[in-house]
Amino acid sequence: MDRNETEQYEKISQFLYEMNQQPEYHVNYLGRSQERIMTQLEQHGPDHIAVLYEGNDIIAVVGIETITDGTAHVFGPITARTDAATSRRITALCEQLINKHPDIKDYEFYISAQHSFGRLVMKSLRTQYLGTRYTMAATRLNDNAIDTRLVIPYSPIYKKSFKTLMKNLYINPKERTEELLGLLDKSYELFILLSEGIVKGYIVLATNNQTTCYVDYVVTHKNYRHQGIGHQLVTYAAEHAFKEHEATEIQLSVEDKRKRTIEFYEKLGFKKVDELHHYKYSVN
């Protein structure tokens, strides 16, 4: 990547990061930190991002985060403009990006319920609404007495056992393992629950330059569920966020259909603070 392209990606990543911190512009599939967003842009390249400019200023961005089996996860539209003319230009921008990838048949979006302009774009694209994901937040946990001594930071020495866990969880364990471990850096931390020499669950904690930390994944081995492992993982991650990162809040997201999971987090002290609406656009 040449210097001009690097500088341009830095500018785009800064725009995306700053905009995505605000609920009225928030979308999913973006990294939590500007550094992570920059990595996303570099990994996927210019064919997977569309930018609307006005002079040298960025007006809007739409991009593809991942592609699997003919499906693209889309971040965007992210824009501070909400007029009708910009809406038309952004719709055209989305269509241009779609036309670049004839092998992709389905595009999925997650857009904040407060992102009214994004919902208008979804309507203009004639997307299908698939459901809601709640964003839940806690400034403290109700139960601080839970024993978290079995939860430890991931280390490569546990990779074999971790891979065994992934085989238990996913159809494509090698791909998912490489994807997850590839995320790890100073802004993405992986913690595992190790018991009897077996990795029985894991949790990923994401940080950014703000005072909020995010639980991006919390997963338990199928054979060891309903044993309090998720409780231990979430408690450890929250304590780590509050103490080590001096966070004032920890967030996670849950699909609205998972009522028992929502009740579990509410008992821990989490409250619903936002909704992300899930849309799908299918190419005819």
TrEMBL record:
Membrane spanning stretches: none
SUPFAM superfamilies named in the record: Acyl-CoA N-acyltransferases (Nat) (SSF55729)
Domain (N-acetyltransferase): residue spans on this chain: 152-284
Protein name from the UniProt record: GNAT family N-acetyltransferase
Organism from which the protein derives: Macrococcus equipercicus
